[in-house]
Amino acid sequence: MSAPPARADGPGTAGPGDSAVPLLTGVVRWLEDHLAWFDPDQWERLLPRRPFRPGALLELLGFLRLLDRAGHPRVPVPGALREGALSLAERVVDDPGFATSLRRADPYFPYHLNLVALLGILGRPRPALREDCLALLAVGAGGHTRPYKPVLNRLELRWFLDRAGLPAPPGLPGTAVLYAQSLPGLGPDPLSLDDSETYAFTHALFYATDFGAHALPPGGSDAGSLLEAVRLLLGVNLTRSHLDLVAELLLCADLLRPALPRHRDATGDDPVARGWAALAGAQRPDGAVPGPVHRPEKMSELAGEKAEAYLFGTCYHTTLAAGLAAAVRLGRRPGEGRVAPWPEPDRGTPQESALDPATPPDAAPGSDEIRRWAATVRATAAGASEQERAAWSARLDPLLVLCAQRYDRPALDAVLGAVRALGQGGTPLAQSVSALLSAGWCAPAPGATGPARRA
Where is this region: Disordered (predicted)? Predict the structure, then answer.
């Protein structure tokens, strides 16, 4: 696939063809139509109870706050959505059980605090609950600011406080200190990241920059290496059709972009443009973006309220993540005006899968499919055109990471053979994989017929 042409829009515009506008419009419409499901009581009628009952509602309020900040004129927030969400949040925090849970200062205390803080930010303050939060923090209740607590949790809490203008207790370091100790601050190794660590990577960037309101703190990994990691992880998760992480990684690309010139890798591949095209292509007519656990065939077996509950439970988070990415892409940053959009994909060209440039992806490729693809590359690389070699080369790193995540030694060996056939054996990732395999990593168990698996 040839690189899509750069847009002519200037740095102060988001052009009329920007895919973020229709994407965000659909997300907002779907959220308004499904507002009732953000009620914890409604959720628990047909969906599993969450440890922090208003967790989905908390995410919705954070999204509304970001829409307020972005202020994009072409995607107004419906009054019914904003008023309905705030009224629901007021009802939740005004229930006596909420204050009782807050005062336990248990592992979900930061989310109690955040719900109270967001209500204040959005114009519905609860002064008594706010004082309860600050009093508990001041005496160290729950130990949430202690140095032995996970750094991501402390960075998140610091963001909650700073965003709301609340004083932090003396034992809680500032954002720059905490960010430097976080996964992106220390520098990720994409080859070894699992899903939970990838989420930790994206969220640390969200918190440290307040979704792009501030520059990346000093003292951590440089923005260039982080953008390279984001692009690689985007390629991996596009191959897996994991749209939840695709949306979060697209958001991270926008957070890092102001610090760097516009960039494509040496193959001309643009995983960012492919990511936006994937979200736009996956969005349902009703505006929802299906999550990784959504199965259309499962939903087709359901009807009425059960079908509606299944749709909401399997789509709401990815829909919100896509909306957040679109809002940040369209929003203003202090001193920058509007951010120039990434180049748009050519809508007339089908988006490539990780393996077959002519076939749109519908699921992550299996081990046999990957090995067949690698065998074809090895057999035909010498006589292939430059365009074919470039398209294949763009798929190598994501496939290496995908096979490593699966502990699939046969497929990993096959892809590494394709790497060598394309003359890419000297890349850092290929060298890292070769070293791991030479050390016996991921060796199949004696007598095994398939790839090794994590215990």
Answer: 335-368
Asked if residue 318 lies in contact with residue 247, where contact means CB atoms within 8 angstroms, the answer is yes
Find the length of the chain.
455
Question: What is the pLDDT at residue 357?
Answer: 37
Count how many domains the chain has: 1
DSSP 348-361: TSPPP-SS-TTS--
Our measurement of the distance from residue 345's CA atom to the centroid of its chain's CA atoms, rounded to an integer in Å, reads 20
Residues 6 or more apart whose Cβ sits within 8 Å of residue 27: 283, 287, 289, 319, 320, 322, 323, 326
3-state SS assignment for residue 79: helix
* pLDDT above 50 for 258: yes
d(CA 226, CA 228): 5
Q: How far apart are CA 398 and CA 327, in angstroms?
A: 27
Is the per-residue pLDDT at 341 higher than 80?
A: no
423 located within any domain = yes
- Ramachandran sector of residue 210 (left: φ over 0; alpha: ψ -120 to 50; beta: rest): left
Residue 454: CB atoms within 10 A of its CB come to: 7
Tell me which of 219 and 326 has the higher pLDDT: 326
The average pLDDT across 383-397 equals 91
DSSP codes, 177-219: HHHHTSHHHH---GGG--HHHHHHHHHHHHHHHTTTTSPPPTT
Is residue 275 within 8 Å of 246, Cβ to Cβ? Answer: yes
Round the average pLDDT of the chain to a whole number and report it: 86
Across the range 84-112, mean pLDDT stands at 97
pLDDT given for residue 447 in this prediction? 54
Judge whether 278 lies within some domain. no
* pLDDT of 192 above 60: yes
Per the domain annotation, does 399 fall within a domain? yes
Do residues 130 and 93 make contact, with C-beta atoms less than 8 angstroms apart? no
- Supply the pLDDT for residue 257: 79
Cα–Cα distance for residue pair 132/102, rounded to 1 Å = 8
Sign of CA dihedral 109, 112, 118, 120: negative
Phi, psi of 272 (to 5 degrees): -65, -50
| CB 218, CB 175: distance < 8 Å | no
Note whether residue 411 is domain-resident.
yes
Quote the pTM value: 0.87
348 has pLDDT over 50: no
Q: Which domain holds residue 382?
A: 367-439
20-38 pLDDT tens trace? 999 999 999 999 999 999 9
